[in-house]
Amino acid sequence: MEVWNNFFVATASAAAALTGLIFVGVSISLTKILSIPRLPDRALLSLILLLMILVVSLLFLVPKQPYNLLGMEITVIGLIVWFAVSKIDSDILKSTKRKYKNHYILNLCLNQIAVIPYFIGGVAILTINGSGVYWIVPAVLFSFLKAVLDAWVLLVEIHR
């Protein structure tokens, strides 16, 4: 697993930096964000995705961690995050006006595409050892993509 260290160091660093930027951006525009329904939840979703990248990356960097323990950790965290993201998305979708529902369904799908590979990767690490890490790569990439899209909305689009 040591061949992946650079990847996970880079993703942990980037996730931590982006998390900090989102906190700063949200704090600067807090009044505006709180005034728009569902936007605080969207901010929370982007923070959850970035935190997931950070935690998973740090778990992969633990020295000499057995594959079965790493697989269990990733699987459990993946399930918890999937449940939390699904619950938040479901609540947002229920409160979204009819004319915006299709737009939010796309948003919901992007969240699922970002989160589900973590769970699959965790199970794959448990069952086929190191090869499961290849599922973590798209999870990280889609999580970054979705978090950056949400950050754009939180920092730029709300001021239009």
UniProtKB/TrEMBL annotation:
Residues forming coiled coils: none
Q: Which UniProt keywords apply?
A: Hydrolase, Membrane, Protease, Transmembrane, Transmembrane helix
Q: Which GO terms describe its molecular function?
A: peptidase activity
GO terms for biological process? proteolysis
Membrane spanning segments where? Answer: 6-31, 43-61, 67-85, 105-128, 134-156
This protein's superkingdom? Bacteria
Q: From the Swiss-Prot or TrEMBL record, give the protein name.
A: Modulator of FtsH protease
Species in which this protein is naturally found: Pseudarcicella hirudinis
